[in-house]
UniProtKB/TrEMBL annotation:
Pfam families: NPHP3_N (PF24883). The lineage of its organism: Eukaryota, Fungi, Dikarya, Ascomycota, Pezizomycotina. This is Nephrocystin 3-like N-terminal domain-containing protein. Residues 6-132 form the Nephrocystin 3-like N-terminal domain. Keywords: Repeat. Coiled coil: none annotated. It comes from Didymella pomorum. It comes from the Eukaryota.
């Protein structure tokens, strides 16, 4: 739907699943998935990453694996995409709390850093993260919307109707 409303924007999303595989519930999985979706729209960054991978793979006897920090740096380069016409990027990350307090806080801090870098580079980046209130993962310096506060009257009305049916 976002593509229909804003076709000029690259919209990517990731839904963290605590019940899923290791990659579905880890910062590494989040970054890998976002990169996978972004790189197809940034071919020069993809070409650079491919060359780096091939070089590292040739130098290694056991194969090449990329760690979370390396992939985070690659995502930063993709967002900067200095050699290309800037294209707005919108990221949605759902259920950050399902990473746990430490990983969730670390990833939130990374996204804050990514936003600061994008702002300095004048790259157009928006990030929307959803999370339950617990565990508290450090949202002090970011804009927040508490859905239950915005829908308090609707929730109370629904509860009253449902409770009147049972009692």
């Amino acid at each position: 739907m976002m593509r229909q409303v804003h076709p000029e924007e690259l919209t990517v999303s990731y839904f963290i699943n605590a019940q899923g595989s290791e990659l579905q519930r880890s910062p590494l999985g989040v970054i890998r998935a976002l990169l996978n979706k972004i790189l197809s729209d940034f071919p020069s960054t993809l070409a650079l990453l491919t060359r780096e991978f091939e070089d590292r793979n040739q130098r290694s006897t056991s194969g090449c694996t990329w760690g979370c920090k390396e992939l985070q740096e690659t995502l930063i380069r993709a967002i900067q995409h200095e050699d290309q016409q800037p294209r707005p990027v919108v990221m949605f990350v759902d259920a950050l709390d399902e990473l746990g307090e430490d990983d969730g806080s670390d990833l939130l801090e990374y996204f804050r850093d990514l936003m600061e870098i994008a702002e300095k580079q004048r790259a157009q980046l928006k990030i929307c993260i959803s999370s339950r209130h617990y565990p508290i993962i450090g949202h002090e310096n970011i804009s927040c919307v508490y859905v239950e506060e915005e829908n308090r009257e609707d929730i109370q009305c629904f509860d009253a109707i449902e409770l009147s049916k049972t009692y």
